[in-house]
Design brief:
about 90 residues, alpha+beta, DUF4031, DUF4031 domain-containing protein
């Protein structure tokens, strides 16, 4: 079981955020997040958004630190990447 986390460099809502992913399954990712006490609402398509103050907790629990580009590569390679749907406003 391997869960990965990138550095908290993503801004939003006045904080910096990390992405927590699995390269095996969403079930593995959800189980890991649950053990950390991360609410399910923090899950977005294929990852959990984790605030910077929880980064060390995730690493201490076994998440492997990787660069942000590696998160995307791992998701693509595993087939778990889910892209945002394009906004279809304005189409007739």
């Amino acid at each position: 079981m391997t869960v990965y986390i990138d550095p908290p460099t993503w801004p939003g809502h006045g904080r910096l955020w990390s992405h927590l992913i699995s390269d095996v399954s969403y079930a593995e990712l959800h189980a890991f997040a649950a053990r950390l006490g991360v609410p399910r609402r923090a899950f977005e398509r294929d990852h959990y958004d984790l605030p910077a103050h929880r980064y060390a907790d995730a690493v201490a629990a076994g998440a492997v630190e990787v660069r942000s580009r590696e998160v995307v590569r791992l998701l693509h390679a595993s087939g778990l990447r889910r892209r945002k749907r394009r906004d279809q406003q304005g189409s007739a």
